[in-house]
């Protein structure tokens, strides 16, 4: 169609609010002038700058403030002419994606937006948190959506490329995004069966290739690898008894939906396990949504937080804890180099940290500084608890640790070598327990978990036997 700026096209914004793998859909009320009774995202006419208008619509139509949502991305506008309900009306839809309630940290948060009553504006009379693939099911079903809703969602949905390029989020968060990629593609293939017929073998091949691309996007992330492996292994498990469905799109769709619920529950349950052991004074570092949740579930009397250079994400963690009414205790920030001093001089009862990866021998790979803190804690007789779902256990014998930007350490003109490791390895003998969704494990019990996870790799013969570089938290 012609340039929308040179026509009478109506520009609208549509925001998809995401929480725990689901998105918010709202039903348009009789108060609106278009698409009454249809379901869509948070939307409204863009009378000025769409980037500003979308936040206005979120506030007005849900009651959520700017601090309640985190911007993820915007997408290319969707342009179309509605020859059905709006009799040839031109539309330009500007899509946006936001995360809610700490989902930008880890992918899990016990304070669920699905349990919070949203304050709907007059333009909507009902809402639901649903998998985005629900938007594909509107034809002839009980959920009619506004036109091009799925097309708008696809413009902001996670992709293999966005997962590969992400240098802000941790492995658990990215593993949830990887399952969303599989879910969305499987849902689309299921939807296309009505037009093209079912071909389980081709569907299985396409989704298996997508799974391999996801693994290649972040080869070092054990939790992403394990969760993709579990999903495709579960989808394949029906192949013998139900050859028409096993491994095909419906099986993968069901497996990803179950995998998302399992992944999010595992992080919550690991936090609950750790929370049972948290009281008194705690020291932590880096950014982990699961650790934050463990502190909320425990009973700390004081929390020390290392600033966690070079990104200093510990500062954000400390500020979040200081304003969290469920933690309700003094929070102190200190430099990374002062961690051993704090452990020696303060009456710290426990060190609590997250993990990017847990090796089969019980050693833990985490943000640089974790090893020094654990060794200092061991010297002072302070127990160290690692909080992580068992999906973070690596099935590989070795991992390669990547380095950060040289300029973060030294950006001068001197002829200097620079060492800036992003991760370090904490020996198993410096760790007292690993709090998981299945309870507390000692480091020497991790090898059995790794063996179970290796069995999930059967869907992809010839799987690589070594990890790639670990990506930053």
Automatic annotation (TrEMBL):
Keyword Ribosomal protein assigned: no
Cited PROSITE patterns: NUDIX (PS51462)
Domain called Nudix hydrolase: residue spans: 8-158
GO biological process, one term: L-methionine salvage from methylthioadenosine
Gene3D superfamilies, A to Z: Nucleoside Triphosphate Pyrophosphohydrolase, Translation initiation factor eif-2b, domain 2
InterPro entries per record: IF-2B-related (IPR000649), IF_2B-like_C (IPR042529), NagB/RpiA_transferase-like (IPR037171), NUDIX_hydrolase-like_dom_sf (IPR015797), NUDIX_hydrolase_dom (IPR000086)
Pfam families for the chain: IF-2B, NUDIX
Entry's Gene Ontology molecular function annotations: S-methyl-5-thioribose-1-phosphate isomerase activity; translation initiation factor activity
Keywords annotated in UniProt: Initiation factor, Protein biosynthesis
Entry keyword Lyase: no
Domain of life the protein comes from: Archaea
Family: Belongs to the eIF-2B alpha/beta/delta subunits family.
Name under which the protein is recorded: Initiation factor 2B related protein
Organism: Halobiforma nitratireducens JCM 10879
